[in-house]
Structure formats: C-alpha cells, structure tokens
Amino acid sequence: MTVAKAGSKWRAYIYDGGTAIATRTFDNPVDARAWERRMKRQLAAGIDVVGAVKKVQEWLPLFLEHRREVVAASTLQRDEGVCASLPAWLRAHRVCDVNPQVISRLIKSINGSPGTKQRALITVAAFFSWLEGLAVVDRNPVRGIRIPRTNAIGAATNPFSWREVETMAPEGPYGDVIIVLAYTGLRWGELRALRARDVVIDDDGIATALRVRRSASDGFPEKAPKSGKVRKVPLMQRPALIISRRLRGLKPDDIVFTSPRGGPLNRSNMRRSVRWDEISGGRRIHDLRHTAACEWLRKGVDVATVSAWLGHASVTTTGAYLHLVSTDEERRLVTMLDERSAKP
Questions:
Q1: Beta partners for 212?
Q2: Which superkingdom is the protein from (predicted)?
C-alpha cells in the first residue's frame, strides 16, 4: 500500500525499485492518492521526484549560483533581491506543489507597482524554468500568468521644460550632463557608456548625432542598451555644441562624459554636487529623458520618430507621452483664457 493512515492524517509514499524516495502527509486519503498518482506519472516521465519534493528554499541557493554564471550583474542583483524577499510560506512549499494558484497568491502579496510585480515574476519564472530544465518539475507554474500591463510613463512622470533645464543646470561638467540628457533622451547608463567613436561628426567637426550602442549603470559593467539594439539620436545645436567641445583631445575609445575629476559618472555624486533635491522640484534624473520626449512631441516630431530616438520597443509606450503633452497644452490654453478674460 502506498497510501496509509498515520494517526489522524494520511501519508502517501512513492517507491522506486522497492525504495521509498518521497513521502507526504495529507488530511484525507483523496488528496493523498491524487498526489501519489501525479508523482508516479512524473517519475515515469523521468522527473527527479526526490528533487521535486524539496522545498523552494532548498533550491534557491543553487539557482542563484547558476545565475551567477549566465546572467549580467544587474540581472543577478534583481534575482537576489527577489529571492531574498520571497515570503516564508512560499519558501516552505515543495517545488512540485507550486502551481499557478500559488504564483497568483504570490503576485497579490507583493506590495509595489505593476513593474515591481513583473520583475518578481520574471525571476520566479526563471527559477522554475531552470528546475524544469533539470527535470525537477514537469511544468513551469508561471507559464500563462500575466501582470496587468500599465505604461511605465504614468502619473510619476514629471518632465521639465527645456527652459527649466537651462535655468537650473549649473556651469561645469555636471551641467553639461543635465542638459545633454534633457535634449537627447538618453538613459543615465547610456550617457555613462558614450564613447568618442559613438559621436557622428560632420565635415566642420560638429557633432550631429549619437549612436547609442552600450549602457553602463553605476557599479555594473557595460552591456547592450535596454532595447538590445543600436539606435541613432540626432543632435540639436544645444547638445551638439557641448558634445563637440568635450570631444577635443579624446581618443575614439575615450568616455565622453566623466566626473569633474575625470572618473566615471556616479549618479549619487552628481545629485549631491548639484544639490539635485533642491533644484529639481522633486523630479528624478530619469525625468530628463521624459523631458526630451515631451519637448520633441510638443515641437511637432511624430510619435514613431520619437519612439525610434528613445529606443522604445513599442510606439504604444511612446504614445503615453501624448497625454503629458496634451495636459501641458490644456494648461497653456486655460492660462491664456484667464489672461484674456481679465482684460476689460
């Protein structure tokens, strides 16, 4: 008998060659027999039943060890953060018992934005995909689970105007950084990784465009940009003059934007040096990227072109800026009406 009463519970046993290799206790015989049948099917299909009855927490260290060899440092950092924050009730689950319902419960338990939930889901999906590859589980329970999509360009987005950027940007290297970010829409890491050879120069020695090939977040090695593709960003006169000046004396592989002392840019150091919290009005450095997008659209550049310049995967993402632009236009019109109505 592979299902036997054990006190007030029922215990199911899985045998392989006469040896019990897995066991589990249930409140009733129906659940015990159902589990026994499922594990026997998995055993017959070549699944590592011994590994399947181990708990999630037993597999996590091995998963992270595997990830250290196959993913970028930034991805590993995300995975480590997600694994460390997994709730105790999920860690205590046997991996064979984690089903889509358990994953849905996990997602609901995560406090944070849809983006936070999505990042957690990506790591958990990678975890079970790895176990599936090891034949520890017969299916990935994350498969088919979807986080309701929301555009990343939402209420938290608060772009500057170019006039505001010009007013707040200080003189010096960090001021150049702020202005170039606001006029090119580059991400922080993309600007940090920009090299002299990535700048397109005309016959007069003036920078005309940037080829965004790499990205380098603070503390991490360079990698491909978020889109995974090289893109070309044309330069208006304002950032072109700054970049042309900074190119003087640089070799092709030299970094264009550095700290005042010549080292790699560091976001925290720049924020502290320019007193960002005081001059930004509560905005983020990433809002400089949103500034470029909104100003381009406001000046008449079409959405598809702005999408290409920003390196968005979808025009739909870029289209969300239209809401910000239209809101700004509505405010301008209301102000105009107020001014006109105040006249006799």
A1: 231
A2: Bacteria
**Do 243 and 207 form a contact (C-beta atoms < 8 A)?**
yes
Q: Residue 11 contacts by C-beta under 8 Å, 6 or more apart in sequence? A: 3, 4, 5, 23, 24, 25, 26, 32
Buried b (16+ CB within 10 A) or exposed e, 244-272: bebbeeeeeeebbbeeeeeeebebebbbe
Burial class (CB in 10 A: 0-12, 13-18, 19+), 335: exposed
The owner of tokens 């088919």 is 144
Which residues touch 218 (CB under 8 Å, ≥6 apart)? 188, 189, 192, 264, 265, 266, 267, 268
Which tens digits make up the pLDDT trace of 49-94? 777 888 999 999 999 999 998 888 888 999 999 999 999 999 999 9
Task: Provide the whole-model pTM.
Answer: 0.61
Amino acid at 310: L
Q: Where are the domains of the chain?
A: 3-32, 56-134, 162-336
Q: What is the spatial distance between Cα 63 and Cα 58, in angstroms, rounded to a whole number?
A: 10
According to the model, what pLDDT value does residue 230 have?
A: 92
Give the residues of the chain that fall short of pLDDT 50: 1
pLDDT for position 194? 96
Three-state DSSP state, 55 = strand
Query: Distances in Å between the alpha carbon of 278 and those of 133, 166, 168, 271, 285?
Result: 51, 15, 10, 10, 13
What are the φ/ψ torsions at residue 13 (nearest 5 degrees)?
-120, 140
Least Cα distance to 230 among 200, 267, 265, 263 occurs for 200
What six digits make up the tokens of 135? 């034949």
Give the position of tokens 């840019």: 265
Using CA atoms, how far apart are residues 293 and 287, in angstroms rounded to an integer? 10
- Helical segments of the chain, H only: 29-44, 49-52, 56-70, 73-85, 88-91, 100-109, 114-133, 162-168, 173-184, 188-192, 237-247, 267-274, 276-279, 287-298, 303-310, 315-319, 321-342
The topology (CATH level 3) of 162-336 is hpI Integrase; Chain A (1.10.443)
For 153-173, the pLDDT digits (tens) are 555 678 899 999 999 999 999
